[in-house]
Amino acid sequence: MYGKVGVNMERQLDQSVSKVEIKGITAKFYDQIMQIGSLGMYGRFLRSAIKKMEIRPTDAILDLGCGTGHNDCLMAQYLNEQGRIVGVDKGAEMIAQFEKKCRDLPNVSLHVQSILEPLPFENEFDKVIMVFVFHGFTQENRKIIAENARKALKPGGQFILLDFNEFDFKSKPFWFRWGFKAVECPLAFDFIERDWKSIFKEWGFDNFEEHFWFLNTMRLFKMTKK
């Protein structure tokens, strides 16, 4: 059913099939749902991944698709007074949660805007972060996001994706395939079939570093702006 989505269905996919923009009751209780759905592993996984981001105390971090701000609260623990985080999101429910979660963190702020629009940042950040957001866009829109990230980064800055790895869907256990199809949209199937190192080299990044979890299906993917 989902075989070779990236090759055979690329022209048929559009942003309307994405599940990346979460609304309603799911958005209101997103962090709790993720924690319960993962049997308590979600929080530990995030903390492990953020540790491997190697955040420095003075880093300036841009979080594209920041959602509830939960990840920004975790990242802020690594910063001193000179470090800062700017989250970017446009969903009303997520914005409300971000403002509540991060209100006591003076070095964490929110910029309300779509990450597909030109961002008002240039050569400003040490790291641009995206956590399980990038896969939920069409390839055309992924390129727009990557261009926004590259523009926002300082020379030599890092673009860091915590997202799915490239993998052969058919080779995974039945329970994983069932859950992935139940939860994810066709854009995720397109995402896991692409050669991302080659793509990001074309988009102006190099010096790749990877860390893997959960049967090598999830990856922290770090790359440097050329």
Polypeptide structure, described:
- The protein has 226 residues and is an alpha/beta fold.
- It has one domain (18-225): Rossmann fold, CATH 3.40.50.
- It has 10 helices and 7 strands.
- The chain has a 7-stranded mixed β-sheet with strand order 3-2-1-4-5-7-6, with helices on both faces.
- Strand 4, helix 7 (139-152) and strand 5 form a beta-alpha-beta unit.
- The longest helix is centred in the middle third of the chain and has 14 residues, at 139-152.
- The N and C termini lie far apart (39 Å).
SS field, number of helical segments: 10
Class per helix and strand makeup: alpha/beta
Q: What order do the helices and strands follow?
A: HHHHEHEHEEHEHHHEE
Q: In the residues, how many domains can be counted?
A: 1
Number of strands: 7
Q: Are there runs of 5+ residues with pLDDT below 50, and where?
A: 1-11
Placed side by side, the strands forming the largest sheet appear as 3-2-1-4-5-7-6
Identify the CATH class.
Answer: Alpha Beta
Taking the sheet with the most strands, its summary is: 7 strands, mixed
- Helicity range of the residues? 25-40%
Radius of gyration: 17 Å
In CATH terms, what is the fold-level topology? Rossmann fold
Q: Terminal Cα separation, in Å?
A: 39 Å
